[in-house]
Amino acid sequence: MPRRRAGRGEASLYPRAARRRSPARRDARRAAGAGAPFVTPALRLKNLSVSYGATPVTHGVDIKVAEGESFALVGESGSGKSTILKAVAGLAPHWTGAIEAFGTPRGHGIDPGFARVCQMVFQDPYGSLHPRKTVDAALGEVLAIHRLGDRDGRIARTLEAVGLEPGFRFRFPHQLSGGQRQRVAIARALIPEPKLLLLDEPTSALDVSVQAGVLNLLKRLRRERGLTYLLVTHNLPVVSFLCDRLAVMRHGRIVETADVSLLRQGALREPYSRELLRSGERTVERQELEADP
Ligand SMILES: Nc1ncnc2c1ncn2[C@@H]1O[C@H](COP(=O)(O)OP(=O)(O)OP(=O)(O)O)[C@@H](O)[C@H]1O
């Protein structure tokens, strides 16, 4: 059984998790791999079974995502990918098993400590932003929930980080384009300075012409902030661009977990994964995506 690092007691976990690690240390942790002993994963799902009422949706899902890693869930529609994200975010409260971020388990209800380190970005920026709240109000609300000060400074810095000019601060959602709205949604997730982002099809509701810009932004933010991503997508080029590993889901179960290099080589092991690969959508033009630095 993997041993836990000394001093990673439950009470002190969130302050430790929120501390920025040096890139060298992060690379070393990544090189150690998600399954290596002594390394507490950023996210651990153990035997996770989620249901809606009496209907079971996922069955015994096990996932470990290392700190700084980007991990994708792919698979056919209805296989339970978004349900896993919802359970981690506290939006699907009927589950068994365990959900841990940086070694600390979350409960089934509202968990403000967990929300501080783990935030979610939804697929549809039109639905996820309140139509009567300005960008300033949407971001300020998150700061108030987490009792974070320096409201003006944090909002200004976060808008800059997502590539929005200061003038966007007092606009309403209907005064923004789809891509700008999704940048606001990303800003809202980023503003409490989480370490782990749950990304549910973050670009699929956007026009193809703006998808690449948002994907490039997510890639840069991860690099600059040492973020960990758990991403749901149907778009395999997005997985290839943004992720290190992927899990293929079918009927609520993981059928294969693989390094993204196998996806790129077309060398996934399971017949179902290969079928998915053959039918993979290609909706983002590769040339629009930035190369790795
Ligand atoms: N709030 C809900 N209440 C009841 N059933 C739900 C709810 N949300 C999702 N489901 C059902 O759970 C199953 C899994 O849905 P989920 O959204 O997790 O799949 P998915 O793999 O993310 O699909 P897609 O790729 O189409 O988004 C589906 O059968 C869906 O109808």
UniProtKB/TrEMBL annotation:
<feature type="domain" description="ABC transporter">
    <location>
        <begin position="43"/>
        <end position="276"/>
    </location>
</feature>
<dbReference type="GO" id="GO:0016887">
    <property type="term" value="F:ATP hydrolysis activity"/>
</dbReference>
<dbReference type="InterPro" id="IPR003593">
    <property type="entry name" value="AAA+_ATPase"/>
</dbReference>
<keyword id="KW-0813">Transport</keyword>
<dbReference type="InterPro" id="IPR050319">
    <property type="entry name" value="ABC_transp_ATP-bind"/>
</dbReference>
<dbReference type="GO" id="GO:0055085">
    <property type="term" value="P:transmembrane transport"/>
</dbReference>
<dbReference type="Pfam" id="PF00005">
    <property type="entry name" value="ABC_tran"/>
</dbReference>
<dbReference type="InterPro" id="IPR027417">
    <property type="entry name" value="P-loop_NTPase"/>
</dbReference>
<feature type="region of interest" description="Disordered">
    <location>
        <begin position="1"/>
        <end position="33"/>
    </location>
</feature>
<protein>
    <submittedName>
        <fullName>ABC transporter ATP-binding protein</fullName>
    </submittedName>
</protein>
<dbReference type="InterPro" id="IPR017871">
    <property type="entry name" value="ABC_transporter-like_CS"/>
</dbReference>
<keyword id="KW-0067">ATP-binding</keyword>
<keyword id="KW-0547">Nucleotide-binding</keyword>
<comment type="similarity">
    <text>Belongs to the ABC transporter superfamily.</text>
</comment>
<dbReference type="InterPro" id="IPR003439">
    <property type="entry name" value="ABC_transporter-like_ATP-bd"/>
</dbReference>
<dbReference type="GO" id="GO:0005524">
    <property type="term" value="F:ATP binding"/>
</dbReference>
